[in-house]
C-alpha cells in the first residue's frame, strides 16, 4: 500500500506541477497556477498520515515506511528548488522570459552546488526525524530494525553528495579562455547565479 501511495504522490506531484504551470503560462491565470503549485505539500501530508495510519493498524515496519520518510525528506529539501527550476523553464519556453541558468564555473558554481547540498542535508534531517518518530511510535525495538537502517541510508546519501560538492571547491572548473562554447550573456548568467 505504501509503495503505491508513494508512486501516486510522485505522479500527483508532476500532475499538479504541469497543471500549475499550464494555468500560469498557457491560460494566463497566474493566481490559479500558483494555487495549484501550493497544493504540492498536501501530497506529502497525505503520505505521512497514511504511513502513520498503516503503522497504527499494526503493519510490520519495513522498507516501504523508510522509503516514505526519505521521499518526504527529499520533497522538503529539494521540492521548492525543483518547482522553481521548472517554473523558470516554463517561463522561458511559454512566456519568452530569459532563462537563468546556474553558474558553470569557479567559486560561483561551488556556491551553487553547496546550496543544492544543503537541500540534501535538510532532506536527511527531515527523514531522520520522521524515522525516529516512527520508531518511537512503534515502540518495539525488535520491530524497527529496517527503519533504523534507513537513517544511515539518508546520511550516507548526504555524505556522498557532500563529497561531490567538495570537489567543486577543490577543483573548480575554469571558464574557457577563448570564449569557445560561451554564448552571449554568459557573464551575466554567472553573476545572476551568485
Q: Estimate the strand proportion.
A: under 5%
| N-C termini distance | 43 Å
| Helix fraction by DSSP (H/I, runs of at least 4) | over 70%
From the spread of the alpha carbons, the general shape counts as: flat
The computed structural class is mainly alpha
Quick rundown:
The protein is an all-alpha fold and 194 residues long.
Task: Write up what this structure looks like.
It is a single chain. The chain has 194 residues and is mostly helical. It has 7 helices and no strands. 77% of the residues lie in helices and 0% in strands. Helix 4 (63-95) runs antiparallel to helix 5 and helix 4 (63-95) packs across helix 6. It is flat, with a radius of gyration of 20 Å.
Task: Please tag this protein with its features.
194 residues, mainly alpha, disordered C terminus
What's the arrangement of secondary structure elements?
Layout: H1 2-26, H2 30-38, H3 40-56, H4 63-95, H5 106-138, H6 145-170, H7 186-192
